[in-house]
């Protein structure tokens, strides 16, 4: 089911099949899309892994059996065929300029080298790499947007440098090792969408030892938040509707508003205390297996008296050498998890390891907004907390059995002797 589009040879022809030997785009999929990077419409039906007739060309290789392309993947790639999602991403200047800056900051590692762009979309990152002097860029995308990417490459006279492969990175063939992988794979709450697994696959298939991955590190954070206005506009609103008492609606309003995680912008003022690092990803060593289920224990000390409405999540990615985030740089008493799972107080002052070399794309509430915004898991009812009150518990993020691109969020938290559980699914 994959196809290749002429590219490197200056063609425009479409090949059927997933093997690439220079000069084309290989294609597969379809997908669902998020009106903003959400998989809400991704249909897909039952999980067909391993048994579906749509399984993408499971090539028999000695030591590599690519994951089959399921109906969910097909829907996922189809959603990325819609130009609107690419327009939204490209117009996110914080995101796109961070990638462009990172590519040019690493020009010495890219010039004259071979690059793979995992999930090239419109081809924008591949073109940045070509502008930075890459000798060859393999621009891989399973969505039909790859056809457009190939047209963009041709229109910019870059067919000698950029080869568009229209297919999954799990299936296409590249007959050489690569020096650099670039990819914009981050979903809401970092891991939603499960695209990092495909970057790992590309790394393990083609990256030379010591090769560069952009971004190189990713960090997912969480923090308790207070957001009285948001609660009021969704719930208290029903108390008086044009003078009519509709407060009987309030239980349903809570369920409708807060059952699922909410992607929205909050500000630093909503955050009750320092964030907790949920997951630290080193893209050069992370495994697909460790992303299937991420668990952490947290312990927060509220810095103010406020109604506590839920937990906010956001992420940073770092291009190049690891950096300490601003949170790490500040003397704080945030909780840290030890290797044996215990939660301890940390009051170390850490320094940015090499501030000149590390470029950070942050989606934190206090930073410039991005299209990822922040993700909030709201409670059905707020918890009143006092200054210095402890909030502790655990979080488990796991791929949904319903659709591995969805994410299950299991939260257990306790404060002032009361214990709560909140389950939600990010679809
Ligand atoms: C978030 S978009 C990024 C697009 C582009 N790189 C940019 O920065 O504007 C991710 C792209 O990766 C593609 N993609 C996701 N998983 C893939 C896989 N396993 N193989 C090939 N393409 C994939 C999607 O179809 C989508 O176009």
CATH homologous superfamily annotation of the largest domain: Hnrnp arginine n-methyltransferase1
**Which residues form runs of ≥5 with pLDDT under 50?**
6-35, 43-62, 329-353
Query: What is the typical, i.e. mean, pLDDT?
Result: 84
Bound molecules: S-adenosylmethionine
Structural class: alpha+beta
Q: How would you sum up the major sheet?
A: 6 strands, antiparallel
Give the CATH class of the largest domain: Mainly Beta
Provide a count of the helices: 11
- The overall strand count is 20
Strand content: 25-35%
- For the record, give the distance between the C-alpha atoms at the N and C termini, rounded to a whole number: 26 Å
Helical percent range? 10-25%
**Bulk shape:** elongated
* CATH-defined architecture of the largest domain: Distorted Sandwich
Task: Tell me the domain tally.
Answer: 2
Write down the Rg: 23 Å
Looking at CATH, which topology of the largest domain would you report?
A: Hnrnp arginine n-methyltransferase1
């Amino acid at each position: 089911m994959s196809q290749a589009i002429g590219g490197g040879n200056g063609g425009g022809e479409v090949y059927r099949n997933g093997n690439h030997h220079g000069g084309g785009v290989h294609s597969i999929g379809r997908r669902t899309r998020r009106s903003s990077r959400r998989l809400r419409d991704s249909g897909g039906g039952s999980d067909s892994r391993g048994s579906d007739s749509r399984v993408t060309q499971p090539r028999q290789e000695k030591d590599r059996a690519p994951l089959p392309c399921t109906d969910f993947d097909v829907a996922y790639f189809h959603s990325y065929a819609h130009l609107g999602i690419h327009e939204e991403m490209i117009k996110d200047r914080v995101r796109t300029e961070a990638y462009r800056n990172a590519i040019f900051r690493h020009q010495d590692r890219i010039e004259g080298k071979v690059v793979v762009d995992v999930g090239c979309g419109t081809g924008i990152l591949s073109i940045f790499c070509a502008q930075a002097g890459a000798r060859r860029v393999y621009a891989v995308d399973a969505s039909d947007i790859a056809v457009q990417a190939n047209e963009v490459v041709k229109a910019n006279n870059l067919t000698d440098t950029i080869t568009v492969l229209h297919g999954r990175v799990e299936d296409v063939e590249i007959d050489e090792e690569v020096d650099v992988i670039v990819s914009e794979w981050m979903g809401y709450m970092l891991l939603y969408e499960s695209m990092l697994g495909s970057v790992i696959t590309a790394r393990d298939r083609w990256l030379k030892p010591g090769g560069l991955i952009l971004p190189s590190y990713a960090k997912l954070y969480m923090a308790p938040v207070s957001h009285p206005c948001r609660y009021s506009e969704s719930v208290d609103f029903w108390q008086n509707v044009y003078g009519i008492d509709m407060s009987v609606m309030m239980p349903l309003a809570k369920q409708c508003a807060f059952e699922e995680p909410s992607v929205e912008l909050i500000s630093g003022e909503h955050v009750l205390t320092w964030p907790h690092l949920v997951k630290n990803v080193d893209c050069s060593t992370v495994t697909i297996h460790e992303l299937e289920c991420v668990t952490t224990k947290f312990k927060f000390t509220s810095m103010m008296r406020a109604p506590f409405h839920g937990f906010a999540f956001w992420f940073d990615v770092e291009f190049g050498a690891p950096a300490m985030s601003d949170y790490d740089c500040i003397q704080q008493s945030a909780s840290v998890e030890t290797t044996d799972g215990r939660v301890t107080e940390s009051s170390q002052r850490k320094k940015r390891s090499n501030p000149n070399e590390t470029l950070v794309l942050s989606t934190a509430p206090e930073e410039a907004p991005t299209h990822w915004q922040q993700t909030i898991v709201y409670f059905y009812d707020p918890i009143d907390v006092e200054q210095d009150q402890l909030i502790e518990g655990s979080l488990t993020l796991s791929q949904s059995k319903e659709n591995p691109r969805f994410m299950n969020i299991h939260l257990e938290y306790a404060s002032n002797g009361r214990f709560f559980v909140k389950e939600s699914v990010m679809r």
